[in-house]
Amino acid sequence: MTNLTFNDRFAKxxxxxxxxxxxxxxxxxxxxTLLTKSGAGNEFLGxxxxxxxxxxxxxxxxxxxxxSIQKHSEYLVVIGIGGSYLGARAIIEALSSPFQxxxxxxxxxxxxxxxxxxxxxxxxxxxxxxxxxxxxxNVISKSGTTTEPAIAFRLxxxxxERKYGKQGLKNRVFSxxxxxxxxxxxxxxxxxxxxxxxxxxxxxxxxxxxxVGLLPIAAAGFSINQLVDGAKTMEKNLKANxxxxxxxxxxxxxxxxxxxxxxxxxxxxxxxxxxxxxxxxWWKQLFGESEGKGGKGIFPASVQFTTDLHSMGQYLQDxxxxxxxxVIQVDSAKADVYLTEKPDDSDGLNYLAGKKLLDVTKQxxxxxxxxxxxxxxxxxxxxxxxxxxxxxxxxxxxxxxTCGISGYMLGVxxxxxxxxxxxxxxxxxxxxxxxxxxxxxQILAHLK
Length: 448
Ligand code: PA5
Known about the structure:
Helix 4 (about 85-95) links the parallel strand 2 and strand 3 (about 110-115). It is globular and about 65 Å long. About 50% of the residues lie in helices and about 15% in strands. By secondary structure, the protein is α/β, with parallel strands linked by helices. The protein contains 16 helices and 10 strands. It has 2 domains: about 5-40 and about 230-410, Glucose-6-phosphate isomerase like protein, domain 1 (Rossmann fold), CATH 3.40.50; about 50-225, 3-Layer(aba) Sandwich (Rossmann fold). Bound molecules: 5-phosphoarabinonic acid. 5-phosphoarabinonic acid binds near residues 84 and 203. One of its GO terms (cellular component) is cytosol. GO terms for molecular function: carbohydrate derivative binding; glucose-6-phosphate isomerase activity; monosaccharide binding. It comes from Leptospira ognonensis. Keywords: Cytoplasm, Gluconeogenesis, Glycolysis, Isomerase. Pathway: Carbohydrate biosynthesis; gluconeogenesis; Carbohydrate degradation; glycolysis; D-glyceraldehyde 3-phosphate and glycerone phosphate from D-glucose: step 2/4.
């Protein structure tokens, strides 16, 4: 049994039954391609069986490193970009207090992030903040050569070295990278850092169940065993031999693909909980980088309701009709807040007295679903029964599996990212990196 359900009550009328059936049978074929590893990018399908194949020894090793980080440090700086940090951040933020910066986690270390952009002020402030703090680093890069994390690592490593000397680095620097290649692997071997390996057959955005995600999550004090167990439950459920209409991933992928076919080119992920904002960031990367190629692909966007109902709500209700929504609903709250009676009812809210804030949210969700679907925005619903490690493991694995099916239905390779290279090469050329001289000439000619 999983804790996730899919509901199409506000999308059904937009998709003719025969089209849905056609898409469901395409989804079953796409799923077979995924499971038999016979499609494009099949050298990157290690993530499909990952939940059931992770060994207790691998998890134990990650937990031991996390304990050592917790023992030595107050802060852990996770250095990585894209798939090398978003999975961990999605889980950590979904489970952390929104006021963590005011009341640091008592369970684990407080996680800070670096190397996910090139902003000078951010990195300067981070270095200044860490000057007198006790911290460790987990540097994560599969290629080991990505510029943003490499720059942040150089800056932070030199601060650590100044504070603790070369010897002190051993307990404080953990690297997660390719088993053999890349500058990070070479440097880690030279310094003797504890190094975790990203399997060859798992790409960045599908890697939250490798040490890429697991080490920061464990260091932050969350249960990686429960996370993996959740993913395992979902893996078993999605691989079961059932009709595509009874398979959650096939249903979601079929609706997405049918709506795209009907001209809905943008999918807006909606959450009513601010702590899911990085789950949505992770989801955007997963689908955007997997599907957006060859002139095709649904554009993944996200909004935070009810906040954005007072801004983007206007567009969603009434703007160009090329959008569909996928609404994540969390059916329970960890802490109930009740609205009480006010004798003079001066704020006019006594009609809500006795209700929980969660009840108010549920009606806001329903009212918005009715309004947006009436405004010709098909709305798909994903309900989870709560938020914990196990449910997040289910949810993220479900999205990965759907993305694989969806990409194959679209006719693209969901496991490469050729488009990401173009900006990198131009940046290298403009910065004067060796080997990019010809490209630099071309760019400069282009600018004339
Ligand atoms: O999903 C992906 O493949 C990308 O987002 C990468 O994770 C990202 O570009 C970082 O790459 P690397 O881990 O090689 O530094």
